[in-house]
Amino acid sequence: MIYEDLSVSITNTQGKPLEEFKQLSTEENSVECWIPSKEGDGFQIHWQPIRNFKPQLGLHCSIKLDGKKVSSGGLRPSKISRGIPGIKVGMTVAKGLKRYYVFGRHTITDRDDLAQPDDPGRELMGTIQVTLSWSKYGRPQLRYEPYRNPEEPRFIHERAVKKGHLGSATLGAPIRKTADWLEAKDIIIVERYPTTRDSKPKSTRRTIKKERELTTSASIAETLKSHSSMTRQGQSQGRSDEIIDVDALDSDNDSDVVVLNDPVEPKVFGKGVRTET
Predict the structure, then answer these.
(1) Is 36 helix (H, G, I), strand (E, B) or coil?
(2) Rounded distance, CA 189 to CA 185, Å?
(3) What is the pLDDT of residues 37-59, one digit of tens each?
(4) Residue 80: what are its φ and ψ, rounded to 5°?
(5) Burial bucket for residue 202 (CB in 10 Å: 0-12, 13-18, 19+)
(6) H-helix or E-strand containing 215?
(7) 136 burial via Cβ count (<10 Å: 0-12, 13-18, 19+)
(8) Structure confidence at residue 216 as a pLDDT band (50, 70, 90)
(9) What are the strands, taking DSSP E only, across the chain?
């Protein structure tokens, strides 16, 4: 979906944009559209400016699923100048743990004691809301504030659900991010010394190995424990000088971002998706 100089798209997990229907402007700096969704399918959020770039400014993205803020991301000026889009696939909820975006389904009830028939948030059910703002980026900082885990989906009263639309946008179960995967993606840079005939290969992988041992020793069953217990476990791990804080590289931390109120106002994009810029 394109609005003025900005582009936002909801894609499948391979990065292919989902088809958009009924795009329309809803208010100043706001536009929305509908997209198809299938329960259990993952999705990604891509954004970028397509023209009239702002010199020295990046593009900050704030994301809400079903009206609840889940994460944010940043697109730095160096990437904008090279035509590289911003991409968000999920939210880091603890050290080494990520929850990916996924389409779900509301749990419906007719009990007034479990859900409100006139739920004030019903207009945001089944929406993906993206707010884009031109931003000035400072020097990246390590993450020291605690991670957070969004509120889990609750019961929805049957009279509050839009007719025929039971779908939701949410976060999947937490998945461990291993050091091997991060290294393969060049998120962790490992120094390797050249090998000669008279020398044995030297390894500088001590910190990587320790991180790998921590993340692979748990079984799959442990990985899929309740979200809250895993989050507490991740938050309780102390700071270690030997382990690379790979989660500090995630863009959920806004400590290096200053969102500008001037010269560009925030704009809005989607419904079924609701996207805001």
Answers:
(1) coil
(2) 9
(3) 899 999 999 999 988 778 889 99
(4) -60, -45
(5) exposed
(6) helix 206-216
(7) middle
(8) very low
(9) 2-3, 6-11, 21-27, 30-34, 44-49, 58-65, 68-75, 86-88, 90-94, 97-105, 107-109, 128-137, 155-157, 167-176, 257-259, 267-268
